[in-house]
Write a structure and sequence with these properties.
Elements: E1 2-3, E2 12-15, E3 18-28, E4 36-43, E5 49-55, E6 59-62, E7 65-76, E8 79-84, E9 90-94, H1 95-98, E10 110-116, E11 119-124, E12 128-136, E13 149-154, E14 159-163, E15 171-175, E16 181-184
Antiparallel strand pairs: 1-6, 2-3, 2-6, 3-4, 4-5, 7-8, 7-10, 8-9, 10-11, 12-13, 12-15, 13-14, 15-16
């Protein structure tokens, strides 16, 4: 059991027999009464999200999730295949199980697979990933890092706001938690 204030982003909890991953955490302090904690939860197996509000002091059952290192191999329609680095078994995961992680998957990438009671339920991505820009608007002389930003399509298909001076073919570092441009890679 964990206190509701420990249910930060990335923690997996069990509510009413359903496994949820915490996506977002908000602490709300009203003028009177106790504080409330609003959690945005993603059902690990079904993939849908829900919002729940808890009173400060409530306790949740933490799910016993194990992690193992794996390499992303390829995707086939809606399934993404990973190879466990210890057992060399192939582990298929659906796009719903990966959530927004599908936007950052590159072949050969090392991730951590989370397992609950032996079943693979999702992946934990590295904090940053280096992606190549495949399409963006033109760059002009005098464009600087502080002049503004423009949309750029990355090699994985995700669109990220990047500085004006970047062009197609440049490699950039993107934060997988927020989806924002960090720096040139």
């Amino acid at each position: 059991m964990i206190d509701i204030t420990e249910a930060k982003r990335g923690v997996t909890v069990e509510l009413d027999g359903i496994l949820y991953a915490v996506i977002d955490y908000q602490h709300i302090k009203m003028g009177r009464g106790s504080a409330q904690i609003r959690l945005k939860l993603r059902d690990v197996r079904a993939g849908h999200t829900t919002d729940r509000t808890f009173q400060s002091g409530e306790r949740l059952k933490r799910a016993d999730v194990e992690f193992s290192s794996a390499q992303y191999l390829y995707n086939d329609d809606d399934f993404y295949y990973f190879m466990d680095q210890e057992t060399f078994d192939q582990v298929p995961l659906s796009g719903d199980q990966l959530g927004d992680g599908v936007n950052y998957m590159k072949e050969g990438m090392i991730v951590r697979i989370s397992r609950y009671k032996g079943d693979a339920i999702g992946v934990e991505l590295p904090i940053t990933v280096d992606l190549e820009i495949t399409e963006t608007g033109p760059s002009f002389k005098g464009d600087t890092a502080t002049a503004g930003s423009k949309p750029a399509v990355m090699e994985t298909g995700i669109t990220v706001q990047v500085p004006m001076f970047l062009v197609a073919g440049d490699r950039v570092r993107v934060d997988t938690r927020t989806g924002k441009y960090l720096e040139r890679a």
